[in-house]
Amino acid sequence: MASKPLSARLTRNLNAKIAALPMIITTLVVFLGGTIWSVVYSFTGSKLLPKLKWVGLKQYDRLWSNSRWEISIENLFWYGIFALVLTIAIGFLLAVLLDQKIRFEDTFRTILLYPFALSFIVTGLVWQWLLNPEMGIQHIVRSMGWESFTFDPLYNPDLVLIGLLMAGLWQGTGFVMCIMLAGLRGIDEDIWKAARVDGIPAWKTYLRVVIPMMRPVFITTLVIVAAGIIKLYDLVVAMTSGGPGNASQVPAMYVYDYLFQAQNLGQGLAASTMMLLSVLIVLIPWAYLEFGGKKHA
Amino acid sequence: MTYSVQIKDLDLHFGAVKVLQGLNLNISEGEFIVLLGSSGCGKSTLLNCVAGLLEPTDGQIFIKGNNVTWEEPSKRGIGMVFQSYALYPQMTVRGNMSFGLKNAKVPKAEIETRVNRAAEILQITHLLDRKPSALSGGQRQRVAIGRALVRDVDVFLFDEPLSNLDAKLRADLRVELKRLHNQLKNTMIYVTHDQVEAMTLADRIAIMKGGVIMQLGSPDEIYNRPQNRYVADFIGSPSMNFLDGEYRNGTFVKGDLSIPVQGYAFATQPVEGGAITVGIRPEHIVTGPLVASAPYRTTTTVDLVEPMGSDTLVWAKIAGEPFRIRMDGQATVAVGDTLEIGIDPSRASVFDAKSEERL
Amino acid sequence: MLEASKMVDRTVDAMSGPRGKKPKKALSGRNIMIYGILLMVSLYYILPLWVMVMTSLKGMPEIRMGNIFAPPVEITFEPWVKAWSSACTGLNCDGLSRGFWNSVQILIPSVFLSIAIASVNGYALVNWKFKGSELFFTILIFGSFIPYQIMLYPIVIMLRELGLYGKLGGLVLVHSVFGMPILTLLFRNYFTSVPEELFKAARVDGAGFWGIYFRIMLPMSLPIFVVAVILQVTGIWNDFLFGVVFTKPSIYPMTVQLNNIVNSVQGVKEYNVNMAATMLTGLVPLVIYFISGKLFVRGIAAGAVKG
C-alpha cells in the first residue's frame, strides 16, 4: 500500500480514536507510565517527596533485610498456596456436586455465592466477630462442655493465617465454583454419553476426561485468583490490622504504610515493585501459554 | 424368530410433553434400520432410550432377547457413534479406542488385537498415535466408529453421525458405512434427518413424527407406496405434487380437471363423492414422446424453470395449483412454453383427504 | 396402522421383566452424600450472615451472657439506629449515614462514567479497529492483573496536578480508570456477538460512529448494560483501598468508615452496633445480588472469559 500523507492516516477513523482517548490515556499514562514511574523511583532515596537521587539497589537491600517485609512475604506465600489450592479444589468439587442434576440447584448456588458480593471489609469484620475468643466459636464450644477447647486464631500468631483463610475461602470459593460450573456446563453432553456407553464410572470420567478438557478454565481461574491473592489487603486490615504483633502482615500493607504513613517513598516503591515482579512471574508464563501458543498452533 | 432389538410400548414424557408414544419396533439380526424425521420427531430420543442414556417413562426394550430396560448402557451390548464425534480430546486415537476396554479390564493383548483390527477395517492405522485435534472431521468420525467397533457388540447405534461433515465427505463416508455393514453384518440403528442417507443405507426406514412411527418399510415401499400424506410429502426431493379433489365414478375430479384413476390399485375403495388427494411425484410426470403412451394427457404452460444440471425442474399450474415437473437436464424449455405432459395414475398415491391415509 | 405394532411377538412375555423407569431410592447413598455435603457447606456459608443479623438485634447485656448463634430473646433495633446515626469514628459521632451518602455520591458518577467510557471502548474495539487498538486493549487487560499498589503514588501525583486529590471527583476518576479493563472486555465480547452485517448496513445507510452507537448498539445491548451496572455497583461500593488512599476523612466512603468504627480502639466495644454497621454496609451489594440473580453470575463469568 502506498503511504498516505500523515494527516490522512491520523484522521482515518478519527471519531473512533477520539472516543478511545480515555482508554489510550489510561493505558499509556496510568498503567504504563505509573508503573514505570514507580519502578524508576524505587531506585532513588525519595523520602517524603519523590526526588531523583539515585541510590542503586539500596532500597531493595533494606527491604529484604527488614523482618516485617520478610514476614509479609512468608505470610503471603503460605496464605497464597493454601488459598489457591483450597479455593480451586473446593470450588471445583462444589461445582461438580451442583452439576449432578440436583434439586434446588439455584438455591444452593445463591447461598454459596452471596459472600462474593460482600466486601473484604464486611467479610473480615464478620469473621473477626465469629472468631472472638470470649464470645465467638471458642466460647460456644467451651460452654457446651469442652472446657479446654482453644481456637483463637486472631490472637495466636501461629494460627492467624488460618483465621484469614477461613474468611478468605468463605468469600471467594463461590466465585471459583461459578466459573467451574460454567466450564462443566460447556462440556459436550455427548462426551458424557460416550463415557457411559464405554462403561466409565463418573468419577473416572471427571478425572481422566473432564478435568483435562477443562485445563484452560483451570489456568484462567488460577491466574485470576492468584492475582487477587497478591493484592490481599482489605481483609487483613479489617480482621487483624496485621496483628497480633506483625504476625499477619502482608506486602500490600507494607507498601501502603511506607508510601502514606512512614513517608519513606523509595522503600514503599521498592516493595510495590517486588509485588509487581511476583505478579509478572505468574502472568508472563500464562500469557505465553494463552496467547503465544495460539500463533504456533 | 429372535429379534436383535425389540421395543415394546415405549413411552417417554418430559413433564407434560410426550416425546415418544406407545412405540413398537422389532429389528431383525443384521438389519440396517434408519430412523428418519425432522427435528423434534423423537428419533434421537428413541435411539438414546435403546442405548440406555434416557429412561423411558413406560415400556420395555429387549436386546438379543434380554430385557435391558433397566440395564446400564455399557452392559447392553451396544456401541454408539455421536454427531459431535464425542472423542476424548486429551487421549490419542488408540487411547480413545481402548479406554472403555481398559476400564472393563480386558487383557492387554486382547485390547491390542481389537484396536488394530478395527483400525485396519477403518483404515486409520496410521493415525493411532495422533490426538483428535490433529485429525480432520472425517477421520474423527472414523475414530468414533472405531471406538464402537472395538466393543465387539451386536448392535451399533448412530446418532446423525454424518451431519457435521461437508457434503462431499458425507457422501464418501456414507458409502463406507454401507460397505462396513456388508462386511460386519451387525444390527445397526441409524438416526438421520437426511433422506438420501436413509434411502441409500437402510434395509428398512422408520419415518417418525411427534413420537410416533408414521411408516416402517423398505426404501422402495416408503418411496413408492407412502402410507400417508405426511410420509409422501416428507420423502422425495423435489417433493410430491398434491391435488385435492373428489372421487367420482373412478375419476379424480377437481374443477375442470378429471383424471381417471381406474389404473390405481386401491387398498380401500374411496366413497363416491368423497374428498381425496392425489399425489404425483415430479419425476413420474412424462414429457416428450413418452406422453403418447401415458394413460392421462394434458397441456400446461411453463411458469418458471429451474435448471439443476442433471435435471430441470419446471413449475407449471394444473387446475390452478402450482405443479412441479421434473425433466431431463438437457431439455430445452422456456417460460411461457406450452408443455404436453402425461400422468400414469398407477404410479401415483391416493389419500383420503380427511385421515390423510393411503387408499 | 403400523405393521410393527401388528406384529405380535411370541418370544418374550411382554408382562414379565423390568418395565419403564428403573425404580430409584430417594435416599440412595449417592444422594445422601451429595445433599449432605451441600447442606453442610451451605450451613458454613449462611452462618456468618445469621450471626451478623442476630447479633445486631440483641442488646449488649444479652450478647455478653449468651450464645452468638441464638436468636435474640428481646429484639431491639437500637444498634441499627445507633450505627446509622451516632456511631463514632474518632471525634466524629454522626454514624455511618455520612459514609453511606459519601458512597452514594461516589457511586453514581463512577458507575455512569466508567460504563460510558468502557462501552464506547468496546464498540470502537470491535467495529472501528484502528492501528494499535488491539495493543491498547492488551495492555488494558494486563493492567487489571497488576497490583494497584504500584500505581497508587503516581496517581496521587496526577490527581494533585489536576486539583482532584482528596476530592470525590478524584475517586470517581480512579474508579473509572480501574473499572475500564473488565468493563471494556465485557462490552467488547458482547459487541463481537452482534452481527457485523447490522453495522455494515447502518454504514451503508450513512450512519457515523456516534449515530451507530446511540441508535443501534445502545438500544440492543441493554442486558449487558445491566450486567455492567451490577458489576460496578458492587465493585465500587465494596472498594476500600482507593477510598483510603484518595479521599480524606470527611468524604470517606462507607467501607472505610465502617472499618474505622469497628476497629477503633477507643471506648467500650459495642458488638451489636458493630454488626449492625457491618450489615448496613453489606446491604447494598446483597440486595443487588439477590435481585439480580443470574445476571450477577453472568457478570462474574464475563471476568473469566478469555480476552
Care to describe what's here?
The complex is a heterotrimer of chains A (297), B (359) and C (307). Chain A is mainly alpha-helical and 297 residues long. Chain A has 2 domains: 1-41, no CATH class; 59-296, MetI-like fold. Chain A has helices at 6-11, 14-19, 21-41, 58-65, 67-98, 105-117, 120-130, 137-143, 160-185, 189-197, 202-213, 215-230, 234-239, 251-261, 265-296. In chain A, α12 (215-230) runs antiparallel to α15 (265-296). Chain B has 359 residues and is α+β, with helices and mostly antiparallel strands. Chain B folds into 2 domains: 5-234, P-loop containing nucleotide triphosphate hydrolases (Rossmann fold, 3-Layer(aba) Sandwich); 241-352, Beta Barrel (OB fold (Dihydrolipoamide Acetyltransferase, E2P)), CATH 2.40.50.140. In chain B, 24% of the residues lie in helices and 35% in strands. Chain B contains 8 helices and 20 strands. Chain B has helices at 43-51, 93-103, 108-122, 137-149, 167-184, 195-201, 219-224, 229-234, and strands spanning 5-14, 17-27, 32-36, 58-63, 66-67, 78-81, 155-159, 187-192, 204-209, 212-217, 241-248, 251-254, 257-260, 275-280, 285-287, 296-307, 311-318, 321-328, 338-343, 349-352. In chain B, the strands form 4 sheets. Chain B has a 6-stranded mixed β-sheet, sandwiched between helices. In chain B, a hairpin with a 2-residue loop joins β4 (58-63) and β5. The mean pLDDT of chain B is 92. Chain C has 307 residues and is mostly helical. Chain C has 2 domains: 29-76, no CATH class; 103-253 and 285-304, MetI-like (MetI-like fold). Helices cover 70% and strands 0% of the residues of chain C. In chain C, α2 packs across α14 (271-292) and α5 (97-127) packs antiparallel against α13 (254-262). The termini of chain C are far apart. Residues 1-12 of chain C have low confidence and may be disordered. The interface between A and C is large, with 95 and 87 residues. Chain A: Keywords: Cell membrane, Membrane, Transmembrane, Transmembrane helix, Transport. Chain A: It is a multi-pass membrane protein. Chain A: The chain crosses the membrane at residues 21-43, 76-98, 110-130, 159-184, 205-230, 269-289. Chain A: Residues 73-286 form the ABC transmembrane type-1 domain. Chain A: It is found in: Cell membrane. Chain B: GO terms for molecular function: ATP binding.
